[in-house]
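Renewal narrative, Specific Aim 1. Our central claim is that a sequence can be written position by position from structural information alone. The example that follows is taken directly from our test logs and has not been curated for this report. It begins with the structure tokens describing the chain, in the order in which they were read.
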């Protein structure tokens, strides 16, 4: 049998159209199937997502009560946060028209919360206490100075006589031992009483360490004839010890009650003002 090969022929147009439509329809069915599967997965998750949102965004009544307690009582007055001085506002408006610069209105009163009011009240109370303490300290200092100025003679039981207060006319200004300290100050008088001390000790506050560095004996025990060094005032003070009665030390001083004035006073040896003594 003879076989004859028939060459390929093109498909008819209707068959090609049917094949194409079948392909598109199959792809659409597959896409719809995949979307249905994905939709089922998300639908299963919807209850969980709704519960999480409910937990996150629902207000906590307990927290709301705590917030209300922390805020304090709420005023029942009219809702007015501030009152404005309209006279000042009119002045500011006129000034702005003249200068072209806007000025804030003057707020005369404000309605602030209870915690802020309590804080301001506490600050004012502490400031008042500080003012009262400062006034009490000032009165105590004035009383102590008044008593010191009245103490012209010590109540000493020692055998050392107490020097009476000298006036400026009775003071011998002749330098002793080359006294180069300026007249009228405590250092000049202490150098007059102790000519053996050097002239280069400086201000009174430096005398204790300066004398120790130059080989003079120093210490915290008062002795008649020693120089008392204190940290009174920014420059310190020095005085000549003329009597010791237990813890009571009597000194002869210049410039304690005034420039160039020599007076006597008593000080407790346990006072924190005392730096020490130069022997």
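The sequence written for that structure reads:
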């Amino acid at each position: 049998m003879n076989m004859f090969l028939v060459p390929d022929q093109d498909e008819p147009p209707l068959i090609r159209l049917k094949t194409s439509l079948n392909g598109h329809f199959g792809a659409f069915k597959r896409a719809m199937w995949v979307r249905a599967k994905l939709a089922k997965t998300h639908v299963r998750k919807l209850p969980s997502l709704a519960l999480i949102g409910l937990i996150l965004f629902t207000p906590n009544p307990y927290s709301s009560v705590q917030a209300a307690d922390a805020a304090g009582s709420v005023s029942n007055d009219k809702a007015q946060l501030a009152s404005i001085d309209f006279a000042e506002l009119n002045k500011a408006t006129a000034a702005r028209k003249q200068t072209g610069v806007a000025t804030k209105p003057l707020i005369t009163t404000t309605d602030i919360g209870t915690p802020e009011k309590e804080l301001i009240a506490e600050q004012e109370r502490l400031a008042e206490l500080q003012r009262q303490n400062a006034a009490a300290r000032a009165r105590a200092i004035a009383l102590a100075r008044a008593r010191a100025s009245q103490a012209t003679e010590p109540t000493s039981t020692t055998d050392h006589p107490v020097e009476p207060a000298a006036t400026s006319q009775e003071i011998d200004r002749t330098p002793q031992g080359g006294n180069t300290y300026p007249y009228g100050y405590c250092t000049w008088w202490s150098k007059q009483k102790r000519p053996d001390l050097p002239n280069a000790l400086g201000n009174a506050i430096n005398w204790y360490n300066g004398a120790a560095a130059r080989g003079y004996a120093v210490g915290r025990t008062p002795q008649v004839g020693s120089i008392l060094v204190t940290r009174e005032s920014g420059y310190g003070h020095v005085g000549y010890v003329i009597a010791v009665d237990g813890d009571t030390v009597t000194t002869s001083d210049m410039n304690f009650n005034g420039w160039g004035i020599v007076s006597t006073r008593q000080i407790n040896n346990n006072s924190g003002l005392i730096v020490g003594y130069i022997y």
